[in-house]
Amino acid sequence: MNDILKYLPYKSSFLFVDNITSLDENGVTGDYTLKSDAFFYEDHFPGNPITPGVIITEIMAQIGLVVLGIHLMVSGVQQRGIAINEGSFPLLTSTSVDFFKMVLPEEKVTVTSKKQYFRFGKLKCLVEMHNAGNELVAKGVFSGIIKNAVK
After folding, report:
1. For residue 31, which phi and psi values (nearest 5 degrees)?
2. Do 103 and 135 contact (CB within 8 A), yes or no?
3. Which residues are 84's β-sheet partners?
């Protein structure tokens, strides 16, 4: 399952996926541990670092939408009228996220995503994030499209 990580289009400072524990055409589960030396903790907030909501959203999107989208492309799930190839990649198009708990440096979070639909090149998922105590941190609906790289 972790072979899928080699397809992610992120570099180390913006890669928010450590491990994929479950992955099939209907959903994905993975985790990430927030590193205390991450660039965003220096200024959010000095002396009392808290993970910004935009980073929580990005973690949820990378695991819950991008990993699943890449899996669907790589596994050959075909979409009528959509050309999926090695130059294709998923792009986030919309989110609606509710936040329930803070995430602190060195916390491990687990993201679970369930596909709502994948058609006409658009993937829509219900995504949840839980902390190590299995408390709900955030949940939302994420959508994205399959895009072919411009050459």
Report:
1. -140, 165
2. no
3. none
Residue 59 identity (one-letter amino acid): I
Residue ranges per structural domain of the chain? 2-148
Take residue 128 and report the two structure tokens written for it. 């949840």
CB 24 within 8 A of CB 74: no
Say which CATH topology domain 2-148 has: Thiol Ester Dehydrase; Chain A (3.10.129)
Angle at CA of residue 94, ends 122 and 75, nearest 5°: 35
Q: How many DSSP H helices and E strands does the chain contain?
A: 2, 6
Digit-coded pLDDT (tens) for 21-41: 999 999 999 999 999 999 999
Taking only the tens place, the pLDDT of each residue in 66-113 is 999 888 887 765 555 555 556 666 788 999 999 999 999 999 999 999
- What is the residue type of 7? Y
What's the first-to-final CA gap in the chain, in angstroms? 30
DSSP for residue 36: T
